[in-house]
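The data layer described in this paper is built around a simple, fixed record for each protein. We quote a single record here, exactly as it is kept in our systems:
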Amino acid sequence: MTKKHNSENGNPKQDDLKVNMEDGSGQAMTTNQGLKINDDNNSLKAGDRGATLLEDFILREKITHFDHERIPERIVHARGSGAHGVFKVYDDSLKKYTKAKFLTDPSRETPLFTRFSTVAGFRGSADVPRDVRGFAVKFYTEEGNYDLVGNNMPVFFIQDAIKFPDLIHAVKPEPHNEIPQAASAHNTFWDFVSLSPETMHNIMWLMSDRAIPRSLRMMEGFGIHTFRLINEEGKSHFVKFHWKPLLGIHSVVWDEALKINGQDPDFHRRDLHEAIDSGAFPEWELGVQIVPEEDEHKFDFDLLDPTKLIPEEIVPVKLIGKMTLNRNPENFFAETEQVAFHPGHLVPGIDFTNDPLLQGRLFSYTDTQLSRLGGPNFHEIPINRPIAPMHNNQRDGIARMEINKGKTSYHPNSMSDGYPEQTKVSDGGFATYQERIDANKVRARSKSFMDFFSQPALFYNSLSEPEQTHVVDAFCFELGKVNITEIRQRTVGLLTQIDGGLAKKVADGLGLEVKEPEHPINHQFGADANPEDYQPTKVNPELKSSPALSMANTIKGNIATRQIAFLTADGVDGNSVSTMKAALEAQGAMVKIIAPKSEFVKDSEGKNIKVDHSFLTFSSVLVDAIYIPSGDKSIETLKQTPKAIHFIDEAYLHCKAIATAGKGKELIEISYVNNYLKKNPENLEDMGLVLGSDSDKNISEKFITAIGNHRFFEREKQGKIPA
């Protein structure tokens, strides 16, 4: 039963993925066997007040299916959101590096499904914890499915997959009380970290603003590992994969994240779904860093070490194509929850390296799908099914959907003329790259992996001053939740190996002294190993800073899909609302009308303006900027609305752009913000404040510029506003 697909010259179409989609509208209700149901409201009984009968097969089928609706959630990455899309490569320039057709033929549009996720929390946890985000893409190519399974951080915590269960056991809720949920700020995680210096690079990323993205649409993605590209001649090049968001890389601040999780736990999921629904399709460019095989050992780090990145200043990222997410799932469970990714899903032209973390993942992902999805036939679930036809001798198993015809299910055979037959490499058959191996079997870690601190230092040195401040605050918050002094002290000791100033600031915030690490610093080695052989290697890299690592250097000026709150009440100036709304929406921003009550406000001429949310159901943490239109009566009402004043204070605390028109400034003057305005009456626009008069024709232009700058972190130096 071979699946057919729409194609032009063998090019699969996105609609091919819409197989097995059921739409019950206008249809008769049936059992799962197709039997039409007469009564779905009453079970079969012995009399209308009698016992329910065992023979009620309709009841049994319905209840049995309900009892089994939940499958085991993912052990990690349980909380996720997904979307369908397409990928198109820009040109054929990668032909000299790979024979993968979807990476070399610009005439092809490859359908795909992308899933974003948090790592630590359960499926029902909130969207904006401090956490790594998964970024997994399944390409449905004509040569088979290719899965690029990565994160929004380019490095990982550990170097060898054998430590992965330890890492996850440590970060998950503690086993005696299953607390805390979706959080790394607890004893067991930092106990593991403080004894495992290889974690420090990823820890620096986790403590940075990268761990609390503004939107799934505004974060980078990375393949993490070094892979291989193989060309038609069989030559290999090393490659690292990058996803670069066209909206830039933006985050929320920590206080904001805490409030978002309470105000809207589905913040990221809702944002992604609404953006696609509105036609504001999220886009990323796929980039590659390519290293010739002969240059494998020319760096001051090991390419096979998953705790290391290749600085873009050393090997630039070449942008080769674009991914566009343009369709939401029809059914969350069937698609987002059942999608099964695996780094071992390859196509000809892409292959593995000996990265020990990657090697372990190649086993783990298949094993996980067997547990979650019930057996070996998970590839037949529609969201996982390849567009390329499947023909092999695998048979039976739980939930088998393919109906295989014929008498043979083995190879070689003569009864079926040898089919399905093997394919030559020249005709597209996959062949593993022939890498020469001559080594002893050992349980050991390469000495070239022992530099644990130079790249964390590179990352910290590359951050802007506000970003560095946020890293310090994050360490103080996380370790402040640890109640074992020895763990805090060990962690500060590791920070001394990265940056002395960082260690001192964190120690001061915790009330500790700065102490050099105990000896030995690395506790990860076998029982018979010499600890001296596994201590960190001191490396003095030539590159001290990488601007590409700082979010301060991201794309700015684009306000598309930014959420702007208009604070209104009855009597608001309708022209002030409509003029600014039109200017913002022309730039792709999305306006939310907020008022003391739901439904409508009446403008100064008595016309209704539809309200999106009341102050009771909405908060400043859910938007990117706020605007206070003019209107005497509206402003007077808002002055008497404490939640409106709090809205302003909170937005200012979180460094967001604020604009007013006419008497809207009076609302600012009765807020806590005014205390800081008095101290800094000049350069308000440099601080993201656009206080315009009714006659100011440039107010919208100034406000759009302010929103495009994302945040105004200079405000953080002024002290905290009680919001």
Remarks:
- Residues 83 and 329 are 6 Å apart (CA to CA).
- The radius of gyration is 29 Å.
- The chain has two domains: 1-30+70-420+453-524+537-555, 559-718.
